[in-house]
Design a protein that fits this description.
By secondary structure, the chain is of the alpha/beta class. It is 32% helix and 21% strand. Strands 1, 2, 3, 4, 7, 8, 9, 10 and 11 form a nine-stranded mixed beta sheet that branches. Helix 1 crosses helix 2 and helix 8 crosses helix 10. The C terminus is likely disordered.
């Protein structure tokens, strides 16, 4: 059985010299970038720019990690483009604001790389288990090879977002809302993510996780900065996510990795992952705050009618607190159209809510809160899965 190499290097902060050294070490351990990137190839560095967030919020890929990677790429090619399709509009104006806020503009001032200015999209055939065809961003199609640079953080819907989930950003802007609407069931949604990864796999040669500072709590945007102190890399995103999640939980608690096992994309016993898991236990973060959206294995194997009841009684319900400024972003991007603005505040129609938590992801005022039904709390306590704080 072919072994999948995963490497990790401790990095204590985002000082350029420290990040550069860590990046050099992980790439060297993987055999050098020349193993993955042909000379003069057009490279798209796909980062995580979920929305306008400053790097200190720890919800987006830190610019120092991106710059350290580009410095390595410059030895092989002058053709490097950096970008992402964030959760809102996929337009020049919207992305300019995101680039500025996330400090990605430093890429163009400190390296020869360019930020993506191509906002064209194209419908392609994915030939997936659940995703047949969908739009994809032109920056991916134009590239010869892609390097995926994710952020280490929690996710209110899926528990964790890392290398595989970061490829959801290949879907342009508001089409992501459509994907949540088409796949409201978490199991189907995870299958859709695997379909995207499988489509992108031939071109996506390397996956890196910025885990110097991660995010726990209510990620992917409204959690808390959390020191993790690692930069991780692999040619395989599932193996990389297994190693990353092992820092705070059992990887098989994560719905996406469960689906990957079910599809044969990941060995359940991780026996083909070339990594020192025993020594890795020394880095375990016991107080890492995360919880899954649901309380019963994400309902992956339940009949549809039971899933419907489970979503109602065994998932966290959305509510808005007094931080709400009625900006309307949650209502505009709600896949189920379950949010309305009334009397200067957003209101959620619980019967229509599909528990995708896009509202929490996009809220710029951290106004979205989760209420845990009694059955949810009881089931979590009985199941003993993950943490529920």
């Amino acid at each position: 059985m072919e072994q999948i190499k995963v490497v990790a290097k401790a990095c204590c902060d985002y000082q350029p010299s420290n990040v550069a050294q860590a990046m050099d070490d992980v790439i060297s351990q993987l055999g050098g970038l020349e193993q993955y990137v042909p000379a003069n190839a057009k490279v798209f560095v796909k980062v995580n720019l979920v929305r306008e967030m400053s790097p200190d919020k720890c919800g987006t890929t830190h610019p120092e990690v991106v710059i350290a990677l580009i410095k390595q790429l410059e030895k092989l090619t002058p053709n490097v483009t950096v970008g992402d399709s964030c959760a809102g509009l996929y337009t020049k104006g919207a992305l300019s604001g995101v680039y500025n806020k996330c400090k990605l503009t430093e890429v163009e001032t400190r390296t020869s790389a360019k930020l993506n200015k191509n906002f064209e999209t194209q419908t392609v055939d994915y030939h997936g288990q659940v995703l047949t065809n969908c739009d994809i961003i032109g920056a991916f199609l134009d590239a010869d090879v892609v390097i995926n640079v994710a952020k280490f953080k929690t996710h209110s819907f899926a528990g964790y977002t890392g290398a595989v989930k970061n490829l959801f950003g290949l879907i342009p802007g508001l089409v992501k809302v459509e994907m949540h609407s088409r796949f409201p069931d978490l199991g189907d949604f995870c299958n859709m993510l695997c379909d995207i990864e499988q489509y992108a796999r031939p071109k996506t040669v390397l996956h890196i996780i910025d885990g110097v500072m991660g995010m726990d709590g209510e990620g992917p945007t409204n959690g808390k900065p959390k020191f993790v102190g690692q930069i991780l890399a692999s040619a395989d995103p599932y193996a990389l996510d297994v190693v990353a999640v092992s820092l705070f939980a059992n990887p098989l608690d994560m719905p996406l990795l469960q689906v990957a096992v079910n599809r044969g994309l990941l060995n359940k016993d991780f026996s083909n992952i070339d990594f020192d898991f025993e020594s890795w236990k020394n880095n375990f973060i016991a107080d890492f705050d995360y919880s899954l959206a649901s309380s019963t294995d994400s309902f992956l194997n339940l009949p549809p009618w039971i899933k419907k009841l489970a979503v109602k009684h065994l998932t966290k319900r959305v509510s808005m607190d007094n931080n709400c400024r009625a900006c309307g972003k949650c209502a505009t991007h709600c896949p189920a159209k379950a949010i309305t603005i009334k009397k200067d505040k957003a209101h959620v129609k619980q019967r229509k809510c599909i528990r995708c938590y896009c509202c929490q992801e996009l809220c710029p005022f951290n106004a979205v809160r989760f209420k845990k039904p009694l059955f949810y709390r009881v089931a979590r306590r009985l199941s003993g899965q993950g943490k529920d704080k």
